[in-house]
């Protein structure tokens, strides 16, 4: 299979990339290409031009800032999986990155590419929603910063405009006594998630839940926050009963698809099961 | 300097493959696997699915295992590549190739080029992997003959061979 013909540009800076996107109406950004090239080979996508930013090495980094951990948009999944700072501070991203595709895909695919592709069943968008990551979007006019709640707009749609480039993803540091986890439910390694659950929580005195964010993947057009379950748990003791009760209402607002990997009914049940497990996983990691 | 090419341009792509410089022509849309097989006649790298699932086309690109059907030829400009043809040293097989031979790690052999590269990428990082780690290391490679048992055994045996040879064959790819 071969993609439809396209013009190819390999800019040497992010500003050049933005200009090229601006000048070429039907262009797409090529980062790792592990989703885009697959779509182009199947002719589900046929952009008339590709702006290949994969050689912009300065966009690949993990950097500790004062208030947040900054991850360059072109950082590959394999680096995210093995980075020790991420593992220590945002373990759910380690969980999520390690479950993407397979080794060859993790060697090329990028966090920015996965975010901008915004497949509802992808792992990183769900994990980033639970972290409430902030996305730095660059354009010819400067840059703007968009929280995860506004970044994922719809199925395969994000807040990144046509002549804009996602440059960095910022993870605000978690307060002391926080923990996180992501569990992907799939039948085979490397498949997309049937349900993906990401949890970030902070404990107060004893086992009281001070703050919690639960994000669900593959059950809606965008990563879905389980707000009712979050509200239920805040201020309550994180014991088996309360966690189970919260999990029962975690699927409120979910509208999962039925396909060969699982029916809608099955996914609605699995949201409960995996919310429960992921909350416990995050609790076990509270430091 | 910015590089660009229009739809039907034939671009000269030059890269180092198995230590030797190769050069050929490709359209922007040409997949790297088609380029190395059809333009450079290096047919050791196989195409099993064309959709990025099977891993038969796995190669080393700048030290990392990648599926060559998921990369454009034009993106390999100047890259350092190792394909299955680059594993043996003349008539002397690479220890991982010997291990596949001795442990019946292949039947039809179609997936083998990719299995060898994925196995080697794993062993370079993790010289003594557990069975689980081996299975995870080859999760991007499909085999429809062996049921994987002998492939896992082969990679395990390769790890022993490579360790006992004192890293002699653990040259970077």
The residue-averaged pLDDT of chain B reads 94
What is the spatial order of strands in the main beta sheet of chain B? 3-2-6-4-5
List the secondary-structure elements of chain A in sequence, H or E: EHEHEEEHHHHHHEEHEEEEEEEHHH
Helix tally of chain B equals 5
Q: Give me the CATH fold name of the largest domain in chain B.
A: Ubiquitin-like (UB roll)
Q: SS-based structural class of chain A?
A: alpha+beta
Task: Label the overall shape of chain B.
Answer: elongated
CATH topology descriptor of the largest domain in chain A? Uridine Diphospho-n-acetylenolpyruvylglucosamine Reductase, domain 3
How many β-strand stretches of chain A? 14
Largest sheet of chain A: 5 strands, antiparallel
CATH architecture of the largest domain in chain A: 2-Layer Sandwich
Termini gap of chain B = 28 Å
Bulk shape of chain A? globular
Structural features, described:
The complex is a heterodimer of chains A (287) and B (173). Helix content of chain A is 34%, strand content 25%. Chain A is of the alpha+beta class. Chain A folds into three domains: 7-52, Uridine Diphospho-n-acetylenolpyruvylglucosamine Reductase, domain 2 (2-Layer Sandwich); 57-172, Uridine Diphospho-n-acetylenolpyruvylglucosamine Reductase, domain 3 (2-Layer Sandwich), CATH 3.30.465.10; 178-284, Enolase-like, domain 1 (2-Layer Sandwich), CATH 3.30.390.50. In chain A, the strands form four sheets. A five-stranded antiparallel β-sheet of chain A has the order 4-5-10-6-7, sandwiched between helices. A four-stranded antiparallel β-sheet of chain A has the order 11-12-13-14, with helices on both faces. A three-stranded parallel β-sheet of chain A has the order 1-3-2, covered by helices on one side. Chain A is globular, with a radius of gyration of 19 Å. Chain B has five helices and six strands, in the order E-E-E-H-E-E-E-H-H-H-H. Chain B has helices at residues 32-39, 95-102, 112-125, 131-137, 149-164; strands at 3-5, 11-17, 20-26, 58-61, 64-67, 80-82. In chain B, helix 2 crosses helix 5. Classes of the chains: A alpha+beta (287), B alpha+beta (173). Strand 1 of chain A pairs antiparallel with strand 1 (3-5) of chain B.
């Amino acid at each position: 299979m071969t993609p439809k013909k396209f013009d190819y540009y390999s800019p040497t800076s992010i500003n050049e990339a933005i200009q090229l996107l601006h000048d070429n109406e039907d262009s797409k950004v090529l980062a790792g290409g592990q989703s885009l090239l697959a779509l182009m080979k199947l002719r589900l996508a046929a952009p008339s031009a590709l702006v290949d930013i994969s050689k912009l090495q300065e966009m690949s980094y993990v950097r500790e800032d004062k208030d947040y951990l900054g991850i360059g948009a072109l950082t590959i999944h394999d680096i995210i999986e093995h980075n020790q700072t991420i593992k220590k501070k945002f373990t759910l991203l380690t969980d999520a990155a390690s479950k993407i595709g397979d080794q060859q895909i993790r060697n090329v695919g990028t966090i920015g590419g996965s975010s901008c592709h915004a497949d509802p069943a992808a792992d990183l968008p769900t994990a980033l929603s639970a972290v409430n990551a902030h996305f730095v979007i660059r354009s010819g006019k400067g840059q703007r910063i968009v929280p995860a709640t506004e970044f994922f707009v719809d199925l395969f749609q994000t807040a990144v405009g046509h002549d804009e480039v996602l440059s960095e993803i910022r993870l605000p540091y978690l307060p002391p006594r926080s923990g996180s986890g992501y569990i992907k439910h799939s039948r085979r390694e490397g498949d997309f998630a049937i349900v993906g659950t990401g949890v970030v929580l902070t404990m107060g005195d004893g086992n009281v839940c001070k703050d919690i964010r639960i994000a669900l993947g593959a059950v809606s057009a965008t990563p879905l926050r389980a707000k009712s379950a979050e509200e239920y748990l805040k201020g309550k003791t994180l014991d088996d009963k309360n966690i189970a009760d919260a999990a029962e209402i975690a699927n409120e607002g979910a509208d999962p698809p039925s396909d060969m990997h699982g029916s809608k009914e099955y996914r609605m049940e699995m949201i409960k099961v995996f919310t429960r497990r992921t909350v416990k996983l995050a609790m076990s990691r509270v430091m | 300097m910015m590089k660009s090419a229009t739809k039907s341009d034939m671009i000269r792509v030059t890269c180092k493959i198995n230590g030797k410089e190769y050069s050929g022509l490709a359209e922007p849309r040409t997949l790297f696997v088609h380029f190395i097989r059809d333009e450079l006649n290096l047919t050791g790298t196989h195409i099993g699915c064309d959709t990025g699932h099977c891993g038969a086309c796995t190669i080393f690109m700048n030290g990392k295992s990648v599926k060559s059907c998921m990369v454009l030829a034009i993106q390999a400009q100047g890259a350092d590549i190792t394909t299955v043809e680059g594993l043996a040293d003349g008539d002397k097989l690479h220890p991982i190739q010997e291990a596949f031979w001795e442990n019946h790690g292949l039947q039809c052999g179609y997936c083998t080029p990719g299995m060898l590269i994925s196995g080697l990428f794993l062993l370079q990082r993790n010289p003594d992997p557990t069975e689980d780690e081996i299975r995870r290391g080859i999760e991007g490679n499909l085999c429809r003959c062996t049921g994987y048992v002998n492939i896992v055994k082969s990679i395990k045996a390769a790890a022993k061979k490579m360790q006992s040879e004192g890293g002699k064959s653990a040259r970077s790819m």
